[in-house]
Write a structure and sequence with these properties.
Elements lengths: L5 H9 L3 H7 L23 H10 L2 H18 L36 H37 L1 H15 L3 H9 L8 H26 L3 H8 L4 H37 L11 H8 L8 H28 L5
Helix pairs in contact: 3-12, 4-5, 4-12, 5-6, 5-8, 5-10, 5-12, 6-8, 7-8, 8-10, 9-10, 10-11, 10-12, 11-12
Length: 324
């Protein structure tokens, strides 16, 4: 084939327009600044987590619930920022009185400031929810991932063990387990929730790992000689953790509600600990004469649980490609 002179090459390229000329000279096209997002040859594909974070930032449900949760975490760590009183400083002379200047929520049956107790009660509730969720997620994820990856007798033992725990009623188990505990701290309640909560996460993690380990990229890594630990940590875990995060986020609000239920029944947190469940239990007998004693701690509990459930729903929508 005869060689073309530079002028002939430029003329031939020019017949295809300026775009062809740029390609003929080896230049690359750049993304148009005013073009739509995600277009152009230089645009890199977004990961699942990048897409999820972009969707979450645009979701008003996530923003509202995240702000509520952030506020609860802040007042749990530093309750004195918005409540200067002592939740255990009580005066029987003020028992059951309504709202007064400096005491917007009134007083309870022992003459304690309801506003201060509601603020300080957030600490134990949030602590129980977060610590229980972390413990449940870690134990359940590890056991479920091992069962799903290795299968065999390990999977059979875990499946039968989770069936046993699923057969234990949570509230009845709490009445039996915590009735013998005399501690007024949050740790017995956290331990009980972790003991009965990990099977749910284990089942979710097991199913996710079983699905992920049959994908082509895992089989390719196995063919290239990757170890089991590398396949689990590098290839399977990042693609199987999304359902665990969603379930754990929603369960966090459930654990807070469970702590309040057990405290209401007298087997969870015990006085002098400050808890919304304890205050709701104490206010139940005064609901006709002083409804404010029940309204504020119950309202705080409802808003907190709702915020975590809304956050879990937003995270689920962002991480599930089928809902995009």
């Amino acid at each position: 084939m005869p060689e073309q002179t530079p002028d002939e090459a430029i003329s031939a390229a020019g017949a295809g327009g300026p775009t062809d000329l740029a390609l003929a000279e080896g230049d690359s096209l750049e993304k148009t600044p005013g073009g739509p997002e995600g277009t152009g040859p230089d645009t890199k594909p977004q990961s699942l987590w990048s897409d999820a974070w972009r969707d979450l930032r645009r979701n008003p449900v996530f923003i509202i619930s995240a702000l509520i949760i952030l506020f609860l975490v802040v007042i749990s760590i530093w309750p004195q920022l918005i409540a200067s009183g002592d939740p255990l400083d009580c005066d029987l002379g003020n028992a059951q009185q309504g709202s007064q200047p400096g005491h917007p929520f009134g007083y309870d049956g022992q003459g304690c400031d309801v506003y201060t107790r509601v603020v300080y009660g957030a600490r134990n509730s949030v602590t129980v929810g977060i610590c229980s969720t972390v413990g449940v997620a870690v134990i359940g994820s590890v056991l479920g991932a091992l069962a799903g990856f290795f299968g065999g007798w390990w999977d059979a033992i875990l499946s039968r063990l989770t069936d046993i725990f699923f057969g234990i009623p949570v509230v009845l188990g709490g009445l039996v387990f915590l009735s013998v505990v005399t501690s007024s701290t949050v740790w017995p309640v956290i331990g009980f929730i972790v003991l009965l909560g990990w099977p749910q996460i284990a089942r979710i993690a097991r199913g996710s790992v079983i699905t992920a380990k049959h994908n082509d990229y895992v089989q390719a890594a196995r063919a290239l000689g990757a170890s089991n630990g590398r396949m689990m940590l590098r290839h399977i875990a990042p693609n199987a953790v999304a359902p665990v995060i969603v379930v754990a986020t929603i369960a966090l609000g459930t654990y807070i509600s469970l702590e309040a239920t057990l405290s209401f029944l007298g087997v969870g947190l015990k006085p002098p600990a400050v808890s919304w469940g304890i205050d709701i239990s104490a206010a139940s007998q005064y609901i006709r004469n002083a409804p404010h004693m029940l309204l504020w701690p119950a309202g705080a509990l409802a808003v907190t649980v709702l915020a975590f459930i809304m956050l879990g729903d937003a995270v689920r929508d962002a991480l599930d490609p089928k809902l995009r």
